[in-house]
Write a structure and sequence with these properties.
The structure is a homodimer.
Chain A: E1 5-6, H1 16-24, H2 44-61, E2 67-72, H3 75-87, E3 93-98, H4 101-110, E4 115-121, E5 145-147, E6 150-151, E7 156-157, E8 169-172, E9 189-193, E10 204-209, H5 226-231, H6 241-256, H7 259-279, E11 285-286, E12 298-303, H8 309-318, E13 321-322, E14 333-336, H9 343-360
Helix pairs in contact in A: 1-6, 2-6, 3-4, 7-9
Chain lengths: 361, 361
């Protein structure tokens, strides 16, 4: 057995070069006499690692100095709740723009802490496209506007940053962070679960404009306050040190690959290859999303006859193509094309798809 | 360079055999074609791994069926806050027994969510012993009693479970879980950050009596409710899959070692060896804790002349003994002797200590 092409939606593929380095130094890291997992987060060696990871992320994303970078736990889902706790006073309102499952979930977990206004939604159209700007009902008095730039289940993605005026824009970038350059200064807060484009699960990376750190006025434990985490360099308590380490290796790998401009080009090429295969299959395969709103990261597609689904999954796995089963909410297939999925994987996939269509067409 | 003897207080030593297995299968786990970190937590392979880890922990600790076992995130510190959110109604009272730094911290993080009664404290005696039972002021109407069975900084440990009557007993076992057998049925809730006796940081293991899951009545996001995590088999959102995997390997290693009775014997032998070396040093080394209350896991000690501290630390590291520097709150030295620290490590330490004392006595 060896490593196969992995299209998992998350936890997802990690660059093989990153895993190989982690494997080499798993028992003894960097001359320390111990695994990186066995070192105090407060020791000099780990603090240097942590600072280097932050510096590399700042360089990759051109993060302005007035933004703090935090390495947290709890998954994006915990921060669906913690963000209103930190950014909204009790009784305040917040706008949520909903373009799929994760936007819905963010709004619902926020509801105990803020008055949620669904300022945009394409749910009535089954999330087949983004909410059109004419339909937005933004509240200029909102504490913030939350949106999900890429929806992993529905396969829609914002290719431009929505203009929400002066209200701080909060983005759950779990599934498309680092997939291309982004103007961080347009955001109040960016957060991402690591398990798609950064590293293993159990780590959340957050980029927050420092003035927003002062907004948490309601009573809560220190551990929930982003300002406390920022003041403690994300070591208010023991962080996920392994996750932080692998994130750092991934950031170095991204720099080696040429940074986010290069990644954007590759991700565009990968997505184009797959969408062209689907659209050019004469209806054998189908992706229903409005073309302009299609995700580069997650490509859901169906077969013209769902009775072929089981055969497709069995044959694709036999061909070394992993985790193509679609989310249960939509059925069908889904291929996730995060940074660590190389073009060769997508070439293998479209080759398999063409062959399968020919055999079953 | 190779692996040295690691006395870190946490993140701490992990059994070498566990790390070797993790290293072997880092790139490709269990015939899956991917790293265990790259697999969906909702796939059959990972679900089987997760269930096996839980079953092994249940076997090791003889956990009764009316207790749920959860694999969570956030560190013990987050659960200092989340426990009162879940176990106490708004306005309710809870008792805290405080025998060191971590008991204090648990009480202070709980304060926004429950009326904290310090029902016992040895702070006025600098935590040199446990609070004596005659001094306890337990409240029969408390929602729960919280205590810290082992204090990593001060080096005190409860060797018996406190009798708190019918009120549910909540224990932060971060630093002594799995160090010996424990009667789980005496507890309402046991929780532990993984980074001392279980695995890497970023994982919390919780054992909770199922009837207590129904106590969370205040408004909060689903992600904070233990009942939701229990209902979802700790997959309410993406768990720390790597941490869960390494915890499972550690549980198997513990079974291979003969289980918790065998570990208790070894831990007793290790601690006795070190305490005897300290007490028999003619005052060169000193541990100030009441003998009956001394921790088997964390042994703080001072040199008779603190001007020798720097030389001791430099020479011990040169001798392959890592992370002996004491916590900054107490100064001096500290040796943590968790499960993964073998007797040979303590033998090397006491040999070094005798030699150092002879050279500097």
């Amino acid at each position: 057995m060896s490593r196969l092409w992995n299209f998992s939606a998350g936890p997802a593929a990690i660059p093989t070069a990153v895993l190989e380095q982690a494997q080499r130094e798993l028992l003894e890291w960097n001359g320390s006499g111990a695994s990186v997992m066995e070192l105090s987060h407060r020791g000099k060696r780990f603090i240097a690692l942590a600072a280097q990871a932050e510096a590399d992320l700042r360089e990759l994303m051109s993060i302005p100095a007035d933004y703090a970078v935090l390495f947290l736990q709890g998954g994006a889902t915990q921060h669906f709740a913690q963000i209103p706790m930190n950014l909204a006073a009790e009784g305040a309102r917040a706008d949520y723009m909903v373009a799929g499952h994760w936007g819905e979930k963010a709004a619902s977990e926020a509801a105990p802490y803020v008055r949620v206004n669904i300022a945009a939604s394409s749910k009535s159209d089954q999330y087949l496209h983004l909410p059109s700007p004419e339909s937005w009902t933004l509240d200029p008095g909102a504490a913030y506007v939350h949106y999900t730039p890429n929806e992993t289940i529905h396969g829609v993605e914002y290719h431009d940053i929505p203009d929400v005026g002066e209200v701080p824009l909060v983005a759950d970038m779990s599934s498309n962070i680092l997939s291309g350059p982004v103007d961080v200064s347009r955001f109040g807060l960016i957060y991402a679960g690591a398990q798609k484009n950064i590293g293993p699960s159990g780590l959340v990376v957050m980029i927050i404009r420092r003035d927003l750190l002062q907004r948490a006025t309601r009573p809560m434990a220190r551990i929930f306050r982003y300002a406390e985490h920022a003041a403690a360099d994300s070591m208010l308590n023991t962080p996920n040190t392994w996750g932080w380490y692998l994130a750092g290796l991934t950031f170095q790998w991204l720099k080696d690959q040429g940074g986010l401009v290069a990644m954007a080009e590759r991700n565009r090429a990968k997505a184009d290859l797959l969408y062209n295969a689907i659209d050019g299959s004469g209806g054998f395969y189908r992706n229903p999303i409005a073309v302009a709103d299609r995700s580069r990261m997650n490509v859901p597609f169906t077969l013209h006859d769902s009775a072929l689904d089981a055969a497709f999954l069995q044959a694709s796995e036999a061909a070394g193509l992993l985790a193509l089963k679609g989310h249960k909410a939509l059925g069908g297939m889904r291929a996730s094309l995060y940074n660590a999925v190389p073009l060769e994987a997508v070439q293998a996939l479209v080759g398999f798809m063409a062959d399968f269509a020919q055999r079953h067409g």
